[in-house]
Design a protein that fits this description.
Layout: H1 3-8, H2 16-37, H3 47-65, H4 70-93, H5 95-102, E1 106-110, E2 113-114, H6 116-122, H7 126-137, E3 145-150, E4 156-160, H8 162-178, H9 190-211
Antiparallel strand pairs: 1-2, 1-3, 3-4
């Protein structure tokens, strides 16, 4: 019996130490394979990223329990990871392939109306949409929502209306002005500070109103950085 056989065992007749040694070796091999595959396999989570994660886990686990020979199983795992990397490279250079492999976002809600055809195709109900709205906004008020999208990874994302974005920006600017620690440092200038704060609010409101058609509302309040 060689040292490798005594350490890792052979077949399914494995003791606790041999199975532990196999688990450690498979863990290191999995890290190497994930590094080869790239970060997207466990980051972006598109459908074919899930396929790689499931297949890789199922294949490598067979080595640990001795259900399959180690060398052929390791080669199969390397093939899975290589195919994933090749497809990912192809998706970067081909929009058609990316759409075929990864899918495309679905617009579930727009301008106050649900798209029943898209929701039926995605197997999403209105209850699912309201749940995402409550979780992300803390409210079930759809009047604040411009669009609802089902992303390629299965998550539901919300695009708020331009007016709602501007209102939040104004409220955050006002709160920053009210909590600025330097505001009470010079009592003689409190009236001037209040006047400037009101002017900044009016300027920000005007800027939001002029850009509300494209939702571009920047929180450019210099009073936040007053020293």
């Amino acid at each position: 019996m060689t040292l490798i056989e005594s350490l890792f065992g052979s077949g399914r007749d494995l003791n606790s130490l041999q199975m532990g040694a196999r688990a450690a070796a498979v863990f290191i091999a999995a890290l190497v394979l994930i590094r080869i595959s790239g970060r997207r396999s466990f980051g972006q989570r598109s459908p074919f990223d899930y396929v790689v994660a499931i297949l890789l886990g199922a294949t490598l686990s067979r080595i640990i329990v001795g259900a399959s020979p180690a060398a052929p199983t390791a080669i199969a795992s390397f093939v899975i990871v290589s195919l994933h990397r090749i497809l990912a490279w192809g998706c970067v250079h081909s929009e058609r392939l990316e759409r075929l492999v990864g899918g495309a976002p679905r617009e579930l809600y727009r301008d106050g109306r649900f798209d029943q055809r898209q929701m039926s195709a995605a197997l999403i109900t209105e209850t699912d949409v309201f749940e995402s709205v409550r979780r992300q906004l803390g409210s079930a008020d759809l009047s604040r929502i411009d669009k609802v999208l089902l992303e390629r990874n299965g998550e539901i994302s919300l695009i708020r209306t331009p007016d709602d974005n501007c209102s939040d920006s104004i409220n955050r600017a006002r709160k920053a002005n009210e909590t600025n620690p330097h505001r009470t440092a010079a009592p003689d200038s409190s009236d001037a500070w209040s006047t400037r704060s009101r002017e900044e609010d009016q300027r920000l409101q005007g800027a939001c109103g002029s850009r509300s058609h494209n939702g571009d509302c920047r929180e450019a309040n210099p009073l936040r950085d007053r020293t």
